[in-house]
Amino acid sequence: MNNDSSARIVADLDAWIASAAPGAKLPSTRTLVTRYGASPVTVQKALRTLAARGAVESRPGVGTFVRAVRVARPNDYGWQTAALGAPPHRGPQLSTALRTFPNDVIALHAGYPDRELLPERLVRAAFTRAARGDAAVNRPPAAGLPELQAWFATELGTVTPAGTAPPAPSDVVVLPGSQSGLTTTFRAVVGAGRPLLVESPTYWGAILAAARTGVRVVPVPSGPDGPDPDELARAFRQTGARAFYAQPNFANPTGARWSPELADRVLDTVRGHGAYLIEDDWAHDFGIDAEPVPLATRDDSGHVIHLRSLTKSVSPAVRIAAITARGPARERILADAQAESMYVSGLLQTVALDVVTQPAWRTHLRGLRHQLAARRDLLVGALQEHVPDARVEAVPPGGLNLWVRLPDATDLGRLVADCEAAGVVVAAGTEWFPAEPTGAYLRLNYSGPNPGAFPDGARLLGRALARQR
Ligand SMILES: Cc1ncc(COP(=O)(O)O)c(C=O)c1O
Fold first, then answer.
1. Domain end (from 298, 328, 358)
2. pTM of the model
3. Listing from the earlier edge strand, what are the strands of the sheet with 304-309?
4. Is any ligand 1 atom within 6 A of the Cβ of residue 111?
């Protein structure tokens, strides 16, 4: 990248911005590339410099704009520090997975699949139909629309083996996304100050939900095959914990899928300690080489609390998830969810149900499996070619992420910043560890936009890593 030409573009755009109206749209990156005879990476660097100074703001998918608000004098919010006091915990405000970037960066950090992987036509048609119906004006029952509860229960019921009672629709509580399901379950079933066993590494949002609800997380080492069952048993014995949060299928971040033997051992341990397994089945629709079978299908005694979300597979705009729980736990969860948000928009529930009950939904999922396989293999191949020091511990049989080990001496903070400056966004694995990281990891997501740019992204990552040798 040429620093001089980036500085020249900044200086020139600064002059333009000074005379532009607040809110004015800057020319597109393509126009700027032509105007300045510079590469897209150099133009992006200049735009990032202007954004960092607060001169412009970028709205992904729309463009870059002169900042509308120009504050003449800085506000004094010091009084709020006294009013709020110190926060109960200090963590990152926004996970890397939720950050948005201009369209032309190579995004390997995202948490939600790109639009081209969504059933967009089905979603739009479902919204149109739902807007015409009663759902647009009615208040749904607190636990969810009965038809949607029934759909979630049937999804589990059809793969429940003979001899185990399938869940009933009334065991299902519909929620606005599984993130809120985690917060609700941790608060209602574990409780502030009490221990919750979690895999390490585990989903950053679960760590956050535990911190927010005052639940004390106890890490259990986990890897590409799932958690260590002996360590799990030891952690239950030592802490007296009554719950274990885990992702038995395509875990975020490791991609792990538990073997049937491990699933049996974990269930036995959980039952033996009179505890709950909080099963986060977030990637249910993202099987690639394997069909995910939830552990919840092997239990009818209320030990497994099952969370399934549609926000990643239907649309991030349709924030619908469900918890299936039996016995008093279900009542506690429903009571907490009601206190939190009363009920979930009936319109969104109707849209979600419409999409997943169309015959085309199954066709979509079959196509998605091929697209994810191609993207995953493309990224694995690109890393092998361009980042020889990186090790993909296991090619995941499903899910959206690669968990990549880097040399121990890697300065991850610097690597992530260098990659971002070069136009590729990656997430440091640190965010997925509930305690100190046990190695230098990156989590790379292969469901983001423009997979054609994965090889370039890997090349830029390889270069940034090589500079640390
Ligand atoms: C493992 C896991 N659980 C839960 C969630 C939350 O998903 P949502 O709230 O969109 O349903 C995510 C999102 O990234 C996730 O990765």
1. 358
2. 0.86
3. 172-175, 321-324, 304-309, 276-280, 243-246, 195-200, 216-223, 226-227
4. yes
Of the three residues 358, 389, 411, the one that is the final residue of a domain is 358
CB-based contact 454:122 (threshold 8 Å): no
Strands 195-200 and 243-246: parallel
* Bond preceding residue 113 cis, omega within 30 of 0: no
pLDDT tens digit sequence for 309-318: 999 999 999 9
Residue 27 domain boundaries: 3-66
Mutate to test the pocket of ligand 1, among 207, 280, 309, 443 (most ligand atoms within 8 A of CB): 309
212 in a structural domain: yes
Indicate if ligand 1 lies below 6 Å from the C-beta of 204.
no
CATH number of residue 45's parent domain:
1.10.10.10
pLDDT of residue 3: 61
Q: Give the pLDDT band of residue 69 (cuts 50, 70, 90).
A: low
Q: Is the CB of 447 under 6 A from ligand 1?
A: no
9 and 103 fall within a common domain: no
User: Cα-flanking dihedrals φ and ψ of residue 94, to 5°?
Assistant: -135, 125
